[in-house]
Structures are given as C-alpha cells and as structure tokens.
C-alpha cells in the first residue's frame, strides 16, 4: 500500500520509494484528514521496522536537519487540498450560475466537482453543492446474433451521473472568469453545462427604450449614407399605397374566391350592371366604379 | 448519381456504394435546401399570383430526386446496414453490440438489473 505523499517531508520526497512503510493502521488512515500530520508521521518513523533497509533509514533519521525539515508544517493551501473544499457564505442567496457536470464515471465527476468548488472559493464566489442530480439510465436490448435468433438477446446500459454546483451572489464578470477557468482546466470524461442568470434593476423598460433610441440614431446615420433618407421613405409609402390599391389588388386576383384563382377575364364587361339611383351618395358611386375596374 | 459525387473520397466511415450514395444525397440536399424552401414558400403563399405558384410547383417537382430530404436514410457507419441503426451511435445493432463489448463506446456496459 503506497503511503500518501504528505507523510514525507518536503526534502525526502525522492526517498519515499526506498523507505518501506509499515502497514498503516486504521487510526493512521483516519488521520489522513487531520491538519496536524507531522506528529503522527514522526511517531511512525520512530517505530522499529522489520525492513532490511533499517540501517539506511536510521542514518536519515539521525540527521537533525532532516528531522527539523520533517517537522515543518505544510502550507495552509496545501493542507487544504486534503480536506473538504471550503465555501464562502452567501449574503443574499440569489442564484447566479448553475453549473451541471455530467459523466459516465463517478470518480472523474467527484474530482472535477471538488475542483470547481475550490476554484469558486479562491475567486470569492459563494458556491453550493455538489448536488447529486438523478442519474440518467439508458438501456438498449439487441439480439446477440447478427442474423435472426431473436430469442437470445443482450442488454446494454449507459448511466450518466450528474452533479450541480450553484453560484450565488456572484458578480457576472467573476462568474464568467470562473467558468472560463473551469473550461480551460476541463477534466477528461466530464461534460459541462452552465446556466447563467443575470439580474437587472427595475428600470429595465426605460433602459431598453434608451438603448432603442440609441440604436435608431445609429441606424439612421447609416441609412443617410445609403442615399435613402426621406426620399426613400417616400418611395416606401408609394409602394405601400400601390400594394393596397384596389385595382392593383384586383389585378393579382386578391378579390377572387379563395384568394387564389385569377379573376374571370373581362369580368367587368360580362356583369349585368344596374345604373345607380341619383340619390346614392357620391362616395358609394366612386367605390362601385373602382370595383368595376 | 455520379454527377453529384465528389471527385475524391470524402468519407471516414465504412466505404461502400450504399454509404457513398447516402453521403452524396446528404450533401446535395444541403446544397439545394434554400432553393427548395423558397419554392415551397412560393407554392404555399396564397397572396401570390396563381401562375407564379404553378410555375414554382413545376420547378420543385422537376428538381433532382437527390435534393429531397426523404432520400436520406441513416446507415451504419461500420457496415452500411440500413436497418436497425441506432441514432445515438450511428451503428447497426450488431456492430453496436460488438463495439460495446469491446469497450469502444464510452459509458456503455452490459446491463443486468
């Protein structure tokens, strides 16, 4: 069983291979998570070992400089990597970013979730999680043979594990930085999906209006360069009136039944028309004339 | 049809006339899709003159059959089989089984529950 790297001092990391460690007891393996490693390591080193390299070990042990180096505690940041990730406490609890990680292997997923939480801590982002989301299990059943024999089949499955890390009360820029950092240091076999929420003030409407006027001014400037301007808008109006003009509409069959068949040729001449009464108002007469073509 | 086919082989999967043909159809459809959609729009637009719409109908019906999306069929990338192809893996059932047992498909294992 390989002993964890932090049992050894900073200098003797190369010698780690030579020194055969005695069987670590249960108490030792529990203390892996404890901050004060030096004392226990010391105790273990002092214990008599039955290994053949006892003589060489004793020389190392007797070296006072090495002993002293062995007693130097690890840096706090390094110690922290052996402990559960630290978390900032959110002040308001407003979710800003939901990061979902997916993988087919739990180990990769756990490692990466841990990494994400640590990154969030050092960026001063309050993070929650990792929340284990329900697994997605897909199953397929296929016949074992390549041809017929449907009775003997085989089942296959793919289980997708998911973890959710939620960032709360983070500045959008910091969150973007965090996401970029995580993306840069992606871990193999882990997929990422982030939902980023942005919060605005209550004056969103007025802000959007201001933005719209700004955009309109910019577009108008561009349109002036096009040579359009008021003359173009006039042309636009003319086209509009033309399109809605009655004779024009009649010409392309807008008044025919079902709006699609062309009108009957020379329909105006073939209609039986009754002359209008003199008391019919002038406007109606006008309309009738227009309709006739 | 040979006139659509690429001069050089541009396929990375199992090569077979059926796979080449299907690949060609996909490419031709992709090329002509805007044209097809424009004609379809003209045909369905009731505010256009009947003549235009009839012309568009003719034009659409006279386009090459390779430009139709219905010509495309999912084929196995490992053996060009046309039936029993999983969309998730683009493989026919037997090739899927072989690859899954060999561990070539990430995450897919033998299931027992």
- On the 0 to 100 scale, the average pLDDT of chain A is 76
CATH top level of the largest domain in chain B? Mainly Alpha
Kindly report the spatial arrangement of strands forming the biggest sheet of chain A: 2-3-1-4
Largest interface: A-B, 26 and 23 residues
How many alpha or pi helices of chain A?
12
Shape of chain A: elongated
Strand order of the largest sheet of chain B: 1-2
User: What is the name of the CATH architecture of the domain at 79-141 and 154-196 in chain A?
Assistant: 2-Layer Sandwich
CATH topology of the largest domain in chain B: Helix Hairpins
What is the number of strand segments of chain B?
3
Radius of gyration of chain B: 20 Å
Whole-number total of structural domains of chain B: 2
Helix and strand pattern of chain B: HHEEHE
CA-CA gap between termini of chain B: 49 Å
Q: Tell me the structural class of chain A.
A: alpha+beta
Task: Specify the overall morphology of chain B.
Answer: elongated
Q: Biggest sheet of chain B: strands, sense, closure?
A: 2 strands, antiparallel
Family (chain B): Belongs to the universal ribosomal protein uS14 family.
Organism (chain B): Cladosporium halotolerans
Pfam family, one (chain B): Ribosomal_S14
InterPro entries (chain B): Ribosomal_uS14
